[in-house]
Write a structure and sequence with these properties.
146 residues; alpha+beta; three-stranded antiparallel beta sheet; two-stranded parallel sheet
Length: 146
């Protein structure tokens, strides 16, 4: 019995005491960034609905232009497309061959047309509530890959 009691005390002392979840610090609409694909009826509809329901300020709405385009790395050019009804950024050659891995060309497309425009929008519009260390480190890592 004594060993059981000591074991229970040890187990309980190692457990973290968790607090009940509260809604005291829910981020407000000014802390939400809505990113949507331009020239897409579905994306427009979702953006408009979300902005209206959540009262997101206009300064927190980022339109992205996502064209099918050619990306060049080390003098090698590949066409990059938005495939699968807009869900996948793919090197068109991989799309034709049916392979499913992300190429450097697809990553460069992601950086040029998605990550960099969002980062620039945040900087230009003084939307500094994100942790610049995390986002900056992720973008820097992506930039090194290109």
């Amino acid at each position: 019995m004594k060993k059981l009691l000591i074991s229970l005390i040890l187990i309980l002392s190692c457990c973290n005491v968790t607090e009940a979840q509260t809604y005291a610090n829910i981020p407000g609409p000014e802390n939400v960034l809505v990113v949507y694909k331009m020239y897409s009826d579905v994306s427009d509809s979702v953006m408009e609905y979300y902005v209206n329901v959540r009262n997101i300020p206009a300064s927190n709405i980022v339109p992205l232009f996502l064209p099918d385009t050619a990306i060049t790395i080390n003098n090698i050019t590949h066409p990059v497309i938005i495939a699968e009804q807009g869900n996948i950024i793919r090197d068109e050659l991989n799309h034709q061959w049916g392979t499913w891995y992300a190429t450097q060309h697809a990553w460069k497309y992601f950086y040029q047309y998605i990550a960099a425009p969002i980062k620039e929008y945040i900087a230009v519009n003084n939307l500094n509530s994100i942790d610049p260390g995390t986002f900056g480190r992720d973008v820097a890592n992506a930039n090194r890959m290109i």
